[in-house]
Design a protein that fits this description.
The complex is a heterodimer of chains A (about 800) and B (about 350). Helices cover about 25% and strands about 25% of the residues of chain A. Chain A is an alpha+beta fold. The longest helix of chain A has 19 residues. In chain A, the strands form ten sheets. Chain A has a seven-stranded mixed sheet, with helices on both faces. Chain A has a five-stranded antiparallel sheet with strand order 5-4-3-6-9, with no helix packed on it. Chain B is of the alpha+beta class and about 350 residues long. Chain B has eleven helices and nine strands. A seven-stranded mixed sheet of chain B has the order 1-4-5-9-8-7-6, with helices on both faces. In chain B, helix 1 packs antiparallel against helix 2, helix 1 packs parallel to helix 4 and helix 2 packs antiparallel against helix 4. Chain B is elongated. Classes of the chains: A alpha+beta (about 800), B alpha+beta (about 350). Chains A and B meet through helix 6, helix 9, helix 11, helix 12 and strand 26 of A and helix 5, strand 1, strand 2, strand 4 and strand 5 of B.
Chain lengths: ~800, ~350
């Protein structure tokens, strides 16, 4: 909301700089986004002038050359283009050096050869009106040289306020004045409706109003005016509207806007002669019902949208926008000023459905009090009489009446202290609460606080009142303490596992990325997922930002492929990337689940090109292949002490079927490792690549949190190597045979060599034998050894000669 | 004879000292201790000496031999070392060439790095780290957090909905409720995680990260919130930082505040500053005392609003990272361009 300070100062004037006022408002809950300036600057250059002479310009038909007394003794020569300028007029003059509203500085100039020392002003040039039909002619009683700022509101600072949704009362000049009164400790002038009496709501002769659905329109008030003269508003009113961001239209429309900006209550003016049948009915729209609004749009109302109709049908959308049919026009002479209260949530729903937000709907949707409607009528009454020469028709209509009686909340002093952590003297609590309009009475353990109607929806509980005390009396000097009862804390095991896993990859030269959770539905096709693939079990969005972002990623590999392509296209020779993040799937069963989607934390790495960069000694390192990425996943799992193996599997459509494997620990599948399928690599413009992905949740469950100490010095192990000629067995199969035959005494076995020669495949194994309670004898080792050899022989595996 | 031995010993000692190379030293050894040298001859001839001289001469000759051998060994060690040094000096490589094999450097994403820093600060303050689901129910994301049924944040223009009517959580706050359902007070937790809003500009991306904080206990105060976040701000932005609380509005806290931290980039004298725009303060997060209505949703789990109270806060990790590292457009963090990522982490 734009708050012109000259308007504010009519009700509360702190005699502080705009910056200082803004700071106080900021620190008490009314955020000031910006301080703007409306109107002109270098005010001493704007003066009242008297036109002494006015001659035709020698070289221009439309220009006059004037001499103007600006109070300095020597008249100024000013060239003027206005058709209405004439000798003897009292006018507004901007002298050289003046700064106009658009920021330009006026200079002495020559216009078509004639010198001009300033400018005779039209109202739009001062931003106090919109007319450019001629210069302003001022009151002849004004002395030349009088500062114009003393006569016209030609400049003000304007605060751009960000009002939180709980404070619709601050969407008004008087509402903010109340805050300034409390925040800056300056007097608050009486409200503009104080002392105005509308009399009894005895109805209005000839006007009938019916509210059929009072559940959505708790109050509807109307005052009728005759003998209205439509015309221009005075400069002071136009300036305030313009400084507040509203365009002046005519006096009646301007009054409706002025009252809304001053009191917060939206106002609607009907041309009473164009209200068919002189009757209004307020009701819910019928299904599909349409209305033409002021902006000439035909709109279809949603269910529970509220209409105001006359004898010929709908004329306004209640609380949102008036209709074109009964709009105020130049010929209007009779006016019905309507101010109503609408249910905020319904206004919001209607406004959302219509995609139509207005000054009125933005206020009503936050919840206004019924009492505000009457306050607004009282302010409008005087303005209609003064500015539009209107005669009020006796009586007024009030359907619904005031809101519920104000509630009184007990504010316990002890509770204030215990919630805020600082004592606020009761006298201070009383003072600030009264300043913002609360009724306050002493109670045995604190105060009884009565909530004013304009805070009815916002302040309903003790905590809400404590917030008022906090913002106005406690936050400035709040001490900084720490909770006294803090427990110790450490990361959970899965969190430690995640950090460790990430660090392993970082330590090996892999760069972390942050992929998008959103993915294109086409991703699974690009990954060649067949029908029924688990990858196709995605969480889909109802309202994505775009079709490209319409599902949640069912795999991390998509964003890694995107990132690989991006970096290779931007000059990288190779990439080694990983992502550590959530992967989303739907639940496949109908069981009860704690979370709506099946989410797990995945760790996925993608290598394209060599992991180690080329150097002067190894100018062409090999591109990372299956074994490079297997080593990488092995580093993660071995660091976390998770026993694992890679088993042949071709379950991943985006991997090379002959060069991919599942990573398992016992019977638990942890993920996959493999080279990219060439068609997938091609799809992302990659020459190739290798990837792994593992489920860190499963790994955390398998990784031992507390390692067990093992004695390594008391009983030294025996190490032996085994050279084998294998047939068609995989390394894993050979190791399994060896492990089974080696039983408990075989502590470890690993492959250290493999080569093929003359059609034979040779495999070299390191074996380590040990027992935890004794040093093994040669006989014991020999016995196990021969068991192993026998088991291998039975599977057709021979010792190499 | 004794004189003769002593003279040999002196001559040998002088010859050892004079030898400049290991070859010269070998000649000295042959000359004095070789098969045909005089001292070994004397030693071999001991048996031929008269009985009364054998002991004295034998002992003296042996002493001389040991002495010469020791001197030779010492000299050889010294000469070999200096000759090796001489050879090594000429074996010069270009030490300015790059190391090899290359050790590639990886880094954490700046958001992970920042998240870990924040987690570590709060771990030190006694807050455990919790995480929760990103696809969330409307109940946890809005209803239980005291959002009115018509709250604008619920609209489809602001919030992502799944085709099954769930939401992508718009904040980490739903975990407040889940955390309180899971464990009775006292509860001191932070909840980092990814959240979603339908927004995209230089300071907003449709996915971003928050850290929620929640402390519920018998005697938690707004002053405790200030102290906790003061500690946090000093840990992250430097030891001279101050914080201030500005009143604000959030549905799930009452009172609600925004927390500003004093600018770390300027003198805070109002002169132009690209970080704080001259205000001297940086808004870093929203916070407040947990609204009694929120506690009311978990009353049966031990959270009677008349018995316990607490504070909650929520900050954006992107905002903290952008402030700390001067990142002008947070969207660049999601382009995953290594040239940007490698600047951090």
């Amino acid at each position: 909301m734009k708050l012109p300070l000259n308007w504010l100062f009519e009700y509360a004037e702190p005699y502080m700089t705009p910056r200082a006022i803004a700071d106080r408002l900021d620190m008490t809950g009314t955020e000031v986004k910006r301080i703007d300036h409306h109107g002109v600057d270098e005010l001493e250059q704007f003066v009242v002038g008297k036109v002494l002479t006015c001659e035709q310009h020698p070289n221009a038909d439309r220009l006059r050359v004037c001499t103007v007394d600006v109070g300095t003794g020597e008249p100024s020569h000013i060239v003027c283009g206005a058709p209405n300028v004439a000798a003897g007029q009292t006018v507004a003059v901007a002298k050289p050096g003046a700064i106009m509203p658009d920021g330009t500085r006026l200079k002495k100039a020559k216009l078509r050869g004639e010198p001009s020392e300033g400018m005779i002003l039209a109202e739009d040039e001062l931003d106090i009106g919109t007319s450019h039909s001629g210069i302003m002619v001022l009151d002849d009683a004004l002395e030349p040289g009088t500062f114009l700022a003393e006569v016209l509101p030609i400049a003000t600072d304007v605060l751009e306020l960000e009002i939180t949704p709980n404070r619709p009362d601050c969407l008004s000049v008087y509402g903010v004045a109340r805050e300034v009164h409390a925040a800056c400790d300056v007097p608050l002038q009486p409200a503009p409706w104080d002392g105005v009496d509308l009399g009894a709501p005895s109805g209005i002769d000839g006007v009938t109003i019916e509210v059929r659905d009072p559940d959505l329109c708790p109050r509807f008030t109307a005052v009728a005016y005759d003998d209205v003269t439509i015309g221009e508003s005075p400069a002071w009113l136009k300036q305030r509207l313009m400084a507040a961001g509203q365009r002046p239209i005519n006096n009646v429309v301007d009054i409706t806007n002025y009252v809304m900006l001053l009191t917060g209550q939206p106002v609607h003016a009907f041309d009473l002669d164009r209200v068919a049948g002189q009757r209004l009915t307020v009701r819910r729209a019928t299904p599909g019902e349409q209305i033409t609004t002021l902006d000439d749009q035909v709109r279809t109302l949603p269910a529970d949208g509220m209409l105001i109709e006359d004898a010929e049908g709908p004329t306004s959308i209640g609380g949102i926008m008036g209709g074109a049919r009964s709009e105020i026009s130049e010929d209007t002479t009779r006016v019905l000023i309507e101010m109503a209260t609408w249910v905020g949530s319904n206004i919001l729903a209607t406004s959302n459905a219509l995609q139509l937000r207005t000054e009125a709907s933005g206020r009503f949707e936050k919840g206004l009090s019924p009492e505000a409607a009457v306050e607004g009528q009282k302010v409008a009454l005087g303005l209609m009489q003064e500015l539009a020469g209107a005669t009020r028709r006796p009586g007024w209509i009030d359907l619904g009446g005031d809101g519920p009686a104000p509630v009184t909340i007990r504010l316990r002093d002890a509770r204030v202290t215990s919630l805020l952590g600082v004592e606020v003297p009761i006298s201070r609590q009383r003072e600030v609460l009264k300043a913002v309009g609360f009724g306050v009475a002493d109670a045995e353990d604190g105060l009884d606080v009565t909530v004013p109607h304009w805070r009815r929806f916002d302040v309903t509980r003790e905590a809400d009142v404590i917030e008022e005390v906090a913002r106005l009396a406690a936050l400035d000097d709040l001490p900084a303490t720490l909770p006294t009862n803090r427990p110790g804390a450490t990361l959970t095991w899965p969190q430690k596992v995640r950090r460790r896993a990430e660090d392993v990859l970082v330590g090996r030269g892999v760069q972390e990325i942050a992929g998008w959770s959103f993915a294109s539905p086409a991703l699974v096709d690009r990954l060649r997922a067949p029908e029924g693939s688990p990858l196709r079990n995605v969480v889909a969005l109802d309202n994505p930002m775009s079709e490209e972002d319409a599902v949640l990623r069912p795999t991390l590999v998509g964003s890694l492929l995107d990132a690989a392509r991006h970096n290779l296209a931007h000059g990288a020779d190779s990439v080694a990337l990983f992502d550590s993040g959530t992967v989303y799937h739907g639940w496949l069963d109908d069981g009860e689940h704690d979370t709506p989607a099946n989410e797990h934390h995945g760790l996925c790495a993608l290598l394209v090109g060599p992991l180690d960069p080329p150097t002067w000694r190894s100018p062409k390192p090999a591109a990372a292949d299956f074994f490079a990425v297997k080593a990488l996943v092995g580093a993660v799992l071995d660091t976390l002490r998770v026993p694992w193996e890679a088993r042949p599997a071709a379950d991943w459509s985006f991997l090379h079927p002959g060069r991919s494997a599942e990573v398992v620990s016992g019977d638990t599948r942890l993920g996959y490792v493999g080279e990219l399928h060439p068609l997938v690599a091609q799809e992302w413009d990659l020459a190739g690549g290798a990837a792994f992905a593992i489920d860190l949740g499963r790994i955390a469950a398998l990784a031992p949190e507390v390692p067990v100490y093992r004695d390594v010095t008391t009983f030294p192990p025996v190490r032996q190597d085994l050279s084998l000629v294998v047939t068609d067995q995989s390394a894993a199969q050979i190791l399994a045979i060896v492990r089974k035959a080696g039983r408990k005494l075989l502590r470890s076995v690993s492959v250290f060599d493999r080569f093929e020669r003359e059609g034979e495949t040779s495999l070299g194994l390191h074996l380590e034998f040990a027992a935890s309670d004794r040093t093994l004898t040669e006989e014991e080792v020999a016995a196990v050894w021969s068991d192993i050899v026998r088991a291998l022989n039975e599977e057709g595996v021979q010792l190499r000669a | 004879m004794i004189d003769r031995i002593e003279r040999i010993e002196q001559e040998a000692s002088a010859a050892v000292d004079a030898a400049q190379t290991t070859d010269a030293l070998e000649q000295v050894r042959v000359q004095y201790l070789g098969r045909k040298a005089e001292l070994p001859l004397i030693l071999r001839g001991i048996a031929d000496l008269p009985a009364d001289q054998r002991g004295v001469v034998g002992k003296r000759a042996n002493q001389a031999r040991v002495q010469i051998e020791a001197q030779l060994t010492a000299a050889r060690t010294a000469l070999e070392a200096s000759e090796l040094d001489a050879r090594l000096v000429s074996d010069q490589i270009d030490v300015t060439l790059p190391g090899d094999p290359a050790q590639p450097v990886g880094r954490l994403h700046v958001l992970t790095q920042t998240r870990r820093e924040i987690e570590d600060v709060f771990l030190g303050l006694g807050f455990s780290v919790l995480e929760g689901p990103e696809v969330e129910t409307v109940y946890y994301n809005f209803d239980a957090l005291n959002h009115s049924p018509t709250h604008p944040a619920r609209s489809k223009s602001d919030t992502f909905y799944t085709t099954t009517g769930e939401v992508l959580r718009t904040h980490t706050s739903p975990m407040q409720i889940r955390a309180m359902e899971a464990a009775p007070p006292p509860l001191y937790v932070i909840i980092p995680g990814r959240v979603y809003r339908r927004d995209s500009d230089a300071t907003h991306t449709p996915q971003f990260h928050q850290v929620e904080g929640l402390a519920v206990d018998k005697e938690i105060t707004l002053a405790d919130l200030k102290g906790t976040l003061l500690d946090f701000s000093r840990a992250i932005f430097g030891p001279d930082r101050e914080v201030r609380l500005r009143p604000h509005f959030f549905p799930f806290t009452e009172p609600s505040v925004e927390i500003d931290v004093s600018c770390f980039n300027c003198q805070r004298d109002g002169s132009p500053c690209s970080v704080c725009k001259g205000t001297g303060w940086l808004e870093i997060l929203g916070a407040g005392m947990v609204d009694p209505n929120v506690l009311g949703h978990v009353r049966d789990h031990g959270y009677d609003p008349e018995e316990v109270q607490g504070f909650a806060f929520g900050m954006g990790i992107e905002r903290i990272a952008a402030l700390k590292y001067g990142i002008p457009d947070i969207r660049t963090l999601y382009t995953n361009d290594v040239r940007i990522l490698e600047q951090f982490g």
